[in-house]
Amino acid sequence: MTYEPQQPEQTSRTGKPMVPATPRDVVHIRIGSFALIAALAIGALAFAGGIVWLSVVMVVLALVAAVDMAMAIRRQNQNRRTRGGMTEAG
Predict the structure, then answer these.
(1) I need a surface site. Which of 13, 35, 43, 70 has the fewest CB within 10 A?
(2) Within 13 Å and on the Cβ side, how many CA atoms surround 72?
(3) Residue boundaries of the structural domains of the chain
(4) pLDDT tens across 42-70, in order?
(5) CB-based contacts of 55: which residues, under 8 Å, 6+ apart?
(6) pTM beyond 0.85, yes or no
């Protein structure tokens, strides 16, 4: 193993650690991806089983999850551009 010296974590003026992504955006992406896969799977099974109304509801929920994930990714990219790669956590 090689030893690499640890860089001290950057902090904002308020003392909060500076990180490239806010925890809120990460949670939106992770939960959104789970919801997207689950909604598509349930929708496909419902369509195969002849429950069309449930498959339509699941497609709508999948679209909502996809839009939410896209907005979270967009927020992360904007924060990286405007703040030089770091945002305040918390």
Answers:
(1) 13
(2) 19
(3) 18-88
(4) 999 999 999 999 999 999 999 999 999 99
(5) 43, 44, 46, 47
(6) no
